[in-house]
């Protein structure tokens, strides 16, 4: 299997409801692809999905028949080819067309593929997505009339990778030196001293720095949520939705591996990811609970993090399939789930304790509206201004995509008074 075949298989899996990252991961486990082919497969698959709406618009202008009703494989072959033609200048046009025709050989659609792509090549004008037809993008424009277009444009960019240095095990200078030896560019992050911005992940995935727990791959904006929790050595903390464990382990690092973190998760497979992360990083204060965060009851904890499942509307650059899967019904279901998790977590705290509620969504329905409802129904809680604990915040911590080359996130800090 080559890079384009891997990308095609993964995109067809997405059409069946599979997460793109998981689909590619399974393919890479099963088939031996070179690092170069893996990188190209990632580029084509994620890029095609990010730009899918405008690519489909362009294809429809030259496609013969109903493009929506076409075979999934055929549609994805054409999408991949148009993406490469429009956005990957390093790939010659003849190679784009030839590879697409080769991929479609089993479909017996050689003439159609060739005709559509030749038509696209003659029509070089790419229309910018000014009025998105995708539901979640329209909601973003409604919520952010001034910044909305910039946010949507940012989803088309390749995400900037960040690493977090495990200060309990690693020397930052030595980590940076090792990364530079590997040809990886290292820059200071926006706010947090443990984080570094790098130009690529590449061979880092299988490197000893990661495997031995000296670093983690973790977006800096996600780390800001942990800083809003403000975990201290010796405290007792619950992380209600803990998988895959990036925030759980960062809090444990900030606590200097002293105290207790109870990591809850409803999925045994996902809870296993938390265990593996903690073991890799050498963290022993984390205990594990397989349970639905809306159902169980613990008490007298100092702090609780509810990093709730969400639409992922703040990380569409990393999860482009979100655009196809989020609608009004999904948003309503998630908002109810989020409120249920937050309401139950309120019972875990001692008087004077703190809940941090967070999402990687930027939609008010999942964020401000959940907090406002909670405060209205729980008068023994107050909102503590996020700006008192983290930089670049106001009442809430809110980081929008496209602003700092990070994920988009939201978080609120709530204190129990009585």
Automatic annotation (TrEMBL):
Its EC number is 2.1.1.176. Keywords: Cytoplasm, Methyltransferase, RNA-binding, rRNA processing, S-adenosyl-L-methionine, Transferase. It catalyses: cytidine(967) in 16S rRNA + S-adenosyl-L-methionine = 5-methylcytidine(967) in 16S rRNA + S-adenosyl-L-homocysteine + H(+). It is an enzyme of class 2 (transferase). It holds the Pfam family RsmF-B_ferredox. The keyword S-adenosyl-L-methionine applies. InterPro entries: MeTrfase_RsmB-F_NOP2_cat, MeTrfase_RsmB-F_NOP2_dom, NusB-like_sf, NusB_RsmB_TIM44, RCMT, rRNA_ssu_MeTfrase_B, RsmB-like_ferredoxin, SAM-dependent_MTases_sf. Residues 151-417 form the SAM-dependent MTase RsmB/NOP-type domain. One of its GO terms (cellular component) is cytoplasm. GO terms for molecular function: RNA binding; rRNA methyltransferase activity. The active site is at residue 360. It is found in: Cytoplasm. S-adenosyl-L-methionine binds at residues 241-247, 265, 307. One of its GO terms (biological process) is regulation of DNA-templated transcription. The keyword rRNA processing applies. Specifically methylates the cytosine at position 967 (m5C967) of 16S rRNA. Belongs to the class I-like SAM-binding methyltransferase superfamily. RsmB/NOP family. NCBIfam families: PRK14902.1, rsmB. This is 16S rRNA (cytosine(967)-C(5))-methyltransferase. It comes from candidate division WOR-3 bacterium. The gene is rsmB.
């Amino acid at each position: 299997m080559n890079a384009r075949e891997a990308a095609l298989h993964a995109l067809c899996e997405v059409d069946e409801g599979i997460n793109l990252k998981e689909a590619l991961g399974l393919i890479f486990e099963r088939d031996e692809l070179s690092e170069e082919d893996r990188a190209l497969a990632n580029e084509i698959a994620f890029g095609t999905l990010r730009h899918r709406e405008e690519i489909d618009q362009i294809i429809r202008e030259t496609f013969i028949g109903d493009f929506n009703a076409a075979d999934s494989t055929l549609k994805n072959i054409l999408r991949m080819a148009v993406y490469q033609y429009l956005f990957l200048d390093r790939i010659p046009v003849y190679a784009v067309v030839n590879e697409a025709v080769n991929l479609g050989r089993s479909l017996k659609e050689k003439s159609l593929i060739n005709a559509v792509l030749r038509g696209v090549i003659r029509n070089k004008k790419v229309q910018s997505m000014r009025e998105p037809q995708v539901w979640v993008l329209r909601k973003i424009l409604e919520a952010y009339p001034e910044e909305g277009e910039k946010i949507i444009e940012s989803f088309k960019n390749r995400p900037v990778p960040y690493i977090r240095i495990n200060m309990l095990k690693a020397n930052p200078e030595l980590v940076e030196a090792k990364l530079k030896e590997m040809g990886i560019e290292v820059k200071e992050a926006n706010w947090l001293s443990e984080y570094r911005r790098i130009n690529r992940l590449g061979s880092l995935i299988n490197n000893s720095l990661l495997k031995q727990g000296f670093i983690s791959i973790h977006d800096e904006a996600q780390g800001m949520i942990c800083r809003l929790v403000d975990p201290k050595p010796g405290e007792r903390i619950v992380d209600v939705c803990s998988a895959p464990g990036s925030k759980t382990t960062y809090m444990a690092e900030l606590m200097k591996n002293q105290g207790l973190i109870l990591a809850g998760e409803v999925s045994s497979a996902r809870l296993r990811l938390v265990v593996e992360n903690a073991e890799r990083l050498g963290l022993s204060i984390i205990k594990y609970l397989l349970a639905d965060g809306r159902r169980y009851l613990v008490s007298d904890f100092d702090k609780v993090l509810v990093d709730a499942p969400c639409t992922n509307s703040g990380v569409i650059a990393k999860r482009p399939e979100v655009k196809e899967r989020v609608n009004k019904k999904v948003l309503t279901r998630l908002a109810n789930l989020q409120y249920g998790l937050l309401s139950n977590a309120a019972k875990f705290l001692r008087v004077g304790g703190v809940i941090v509620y967070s999402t990687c969504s930027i939609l008010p329905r999942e964020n401000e509206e959940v907090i406002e409802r909670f405060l209205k129904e729980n008068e023994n809680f107050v909102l503590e201004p996020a700006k008192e604990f983290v930089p670049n915040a106001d009442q809430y911590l809110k980081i929008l995509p496209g602003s700092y080359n990070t994920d988009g996130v939201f978080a609120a800090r709530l204190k129990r008074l009585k």
